[in-house]
From TrEMBL, chain B:
Pfam families: AzlD (PF05437). The chain crosses the membrane at residues 6-29, 41-62, 68-96. The keyword Transmembrane applies. It comes from the Bacteria. The keyword Transmembrane applies. It comes from Rhizobium pisi. This is AzlD family protein. Keywords: Membrane, Transmembrane, Transmembrane helix.
Length: 243, 102
């Protein structure tokens, strides 16, 4: 493992760990509120490791929904990861099978965003960097889940301390990070409109898959850019990314 | 510390389902030899498309304080930095809810 890359990864992931700490704590608190034990909440954070879908999971646990439906809903929320791993494939061909296992197990949204940014900028996407970036998010995620579960009784109403706005604001920030891409505006607009309609008429969590599918299909149908994207030009264009 | 077997099995199933989505795209794409340009355009659109779907419903379903907070966060993100977006959104919501907003 390349030590410098690992440390650079740790540095990059640290900001994400800080940003996701309230969500880990929120998950732990809500999980306990919905009838999970502390060890079950920690186990879920350690094995599923996908914030939004964990929230959906505990919401459904609380409503005594059938097990297969809970798993299906989590699958729907996480379906975007199929597209992430497909998009990541071109950068991680050189990883060993064991490295690939950890790469995919730890593939959360900000991890994907950072990895693709790095790959597109033409910088080497080493496993050392990837793992450093991931582990500094993964371990605090479990720890903050436990802390949140312990504190759960004291939080009361998450809205009273403004926790509910952090998740959408955080995702909005990641979306903005991609605004220099081809067709960004039409894709984002179509996904936004489609997800709102799906939320209204199909229901959560399908708005994620359906809304995203609309934007992705649009991107595939729009006229292609005049030539292959030039990695060097991309690297010059891309700003310093801080998510 | 209680650990319910049924709950544990559901969590494990959820973990397996999640891992399947995280490796699925890679397996699909490596089975195909090259990526057609339209598929590449589609893949490039994935992150913005997916993440937008996590924001837009929150904007439309949230109260006026959430809408205002996200608009403020958008401007902060475009003008200042992404980190300050979270702070700005949180401040707007807290002021609205605790300083006698509607």
């Amino acid at each position: 493992m390349n030590r410098a890359d690992f440390i650079e990864g740790l540095r990059g992931g640290f900001a994400v760990a800080l940003a996701s700490a309230p969500f880990g704590a929120l998950f732990g608190a809500l999980a306990v509120e919905n009838g999970m034990s502390l060890s079950e909440a920690a186990f879920m954070s350690a094995t599923v490791y996908a914030g939004a879908s964990q929230m959906v999971g505990i919401e459904l646990f609380g409503h005594h929904v059938q097990a297969w439906l809970i798993v299906l809903s989590i699958l729907a929320v996480n379906f975007r990861h199929v597209l992430y791993s497909a998009a990541l494939a071109r950068y991680i061909g050189h990883f060993t099978p064991v490295q690939k296992f950890f790469t995919f197990f730890l593939l959360v949204d900000p991890q994907f965003a950072a990895a693709v940014k790095r790959g597109e900028a033409g910088r080497p996407l080493t496993f050392a960097w990837y793992f450093g970036f991931a582990i500094i998010i993964y371990i605090p995620w479990i720890l903050t889940s436990i802390a949140g579960g312990l504190l759960g009784g004291f939080i009361g109403d998450p809205k009273a301390i403004g926790l509910d706005i952090l998740l959408p604001a955080y995702f909005l920030g990641i979306v903005l990070g991609f605004r220099k891409r081809d067709n960004f505006l039409p894709v984002a607009l179509v996904s936004a409109v489609a997800s709102v309609f799906a939320y209204r008429y199909v229901g959560s969590p399908w708005h994620v898959s359906l809304g995203a599918a609309a934007g992705i299909v649009l991107a595939a149908l729009l006229p292609l850019p005049p030539q292959e994207p030039d990695l060097e030009a991309d690297a010059l264009q891309s700003e310093v990314h801080e998510v | 510390m209680e650990f319910d077997l049924h709950m544990a099995l559901v969590i494990i199933a959820a973990a397996v389902a999640t891992f399947a989505t995280r490796i699925g795209g890679y397996i699909l794409i490596t089975r195909m030899k090259s990526i057609p340009p339209r598929m590449e355009a589609a893949l490039n659109a994935v992150p913005a498309a997916v993440l937008t779907t996590l924001v837009a419903p929150a904007f439309f379903i949230g109260g006026w304080e959430s809408k205002l907070a996200l608009v403020v966060a958008l401007f902060v993100g475009l003008r200042i930095s992404h980190t300050w977006m979270l702070v700005a959104a949180w401040i707007v919501v807290m002021i609205w809810r605790h300083a006698g907003g509607l």
